[in-house]
Amino acid sequence: MSARLDHRFDGPDDAPVVVLAGSLGTTKAMWGAQVPALAARFRVLSYDHRGHGGSEVPPGPYAIEDLGGDVLALLDQHGIERASFCGLSIGGMVGLWLAAEAPQRIDRLALLCTSARLGPPEGWDDRVAAIRRDGIEGIADAVVGRWFTSDFAAREPETVARWRAVLTETPREGYAGCCEAIRDFDLSDRLATITAPTLIVSALHDIATPVEHQAALAAGIAGARLTVLDGAAHLAAVEQGPAVAAALLDHLGGGDRHERGMAVRRAVLGDAHVDAAIAATTPFTEDFQHYITGAAWGDVWTRDGIDRRMRSAITLTALLAVNRMEEFAMHVRAARRNGLSTEEIGEIVLNAAVYVGVPAANDGFRVAARALADES
């Protein structure tokens, strides 16, 4: 029997539907950075899994087919015949099940930080036993430690604390039941049956569902496209909100190059810098600002051929070569946001000394040191 799911709609009633399914121990609020971008083009249906948030908490154990059946019942309730589906972690597992079991209901599929099989079963058994015995508080720090990178946790402790509270407020039976669903889920031998156009998003620092799990999905689903985000761990939709929004818009067909570019520009350069650039825009510079947002950030920085770490390294070298030190300082800060370490930035400048020249590298070390100090 399906469970009653707490859910909400955003966006135009007559637009194509996109369903958002979150991670174990979270609520639909985890999509806060993506809903506004998607709702401009889609009817966005976000929900809480059974046993989570405001949804019903039936007794466990659960299975992924139970969670998938809940979604189908929700779609039927609202007369939705077909929808695109985006899921993170256990939400991605639900998406895989739906795409395999009910392909006529799924238009496009986006899978974030998830797996077709996430063992070993003994680890899940131990977690379930601990939860049913002691509650969630005892595992909360370990779980949240896998959700976010250490840099993000240091930079945004209030956000981390807020999501820790969401985790510990999850009903223990709901959390344990979903753990059992993950324990028993294995769709690895059915990936080839999935025909929905599929985007797979990995987070480079995700130790809960490492990148090799998403690489296996990409290898098994025909035509699937894999993109790897730097500067994110398991809850990539929270930590790299604009980048995830841009990837979803690109995959789902919503948004133009300028909208995608603005999302990536904010993810790489930061809101403060972009807001300042927008505030300084005049009628004389407006066309140029629109051009660089669309061409540089919308067309180039959104491509999958190389990751953002490499784009940052190339950009730093090019800016040193043409002696654009103000832009160089800005991209040193962007490189840190894209996951490059201070040591790696130093190696890039040192390497440039050979090919660009010692005076340029001398300026580069001086400007980079100041930019990195400003970030600390």
- Give the low-pLDDT segments: none
Mean pLDDT: 94
Query: What is the count of distinct domains?
Result: 2
Overall, the morphology is globular
**CATH-defined topology of the largest domain:** Rossmann fold
Q: How does this structure look, described?
A:
The structure is a single chain. The protein has 376 residues and is an alpha/beta fold. The protein has two domains: 7-255, Rossmann fold (3-Layer(aba) Sandwich), CATH 3.40.50.1820; 306-376, AhpD-like, CATH 1.20.1290. It is built from 18 helices and seven strands. The protein has helices spanning 35-39, 64-77, 90-101, 121-134, 137-147, 150-155, 157-169, 172-184, 211-220, 236-239, 241-252, 257-269, 271-279, 286-300, 308-321, 325-337, 342-355, 358-375; strands at residues 7-10, 17-21, 43-47, 83-88, 106-112, 198-203, 225-229. It has a seven-stranded mixed sheet, sandwiched between helices. β6 (198-203), α9 and β7 (225-229) form a beta-alpha-beta unit. The longest helix has 18 residues, at 358-375. The model has no long low-confidence stretch (mean pLDDT 94).
Quick recap:
By secondary structure, the protein is of the alpha/beta class.
Helix and strand topology:
Blueprint: E1 7-10, E2 17-21, H1 35-39, E3 43-47, H2 64-77, E4 83-88, H3 90-101, E5 106-112, H4 121-134, H5 137-147, H6 150-155, H7 157-169, H8 172-184, E6 198-203, H9 211-220, E7 225-229, H10 236-239, H11 241-252, H12 257-269, H13 271-279, H14 286-300, H15 308-321, H16 325-337, H17 342-355, H18 358-375
Parallel strand pairs: 2-3, 2-4, 4-5, 5-6, 6-7
Antiparallel strand pairs: 1-3
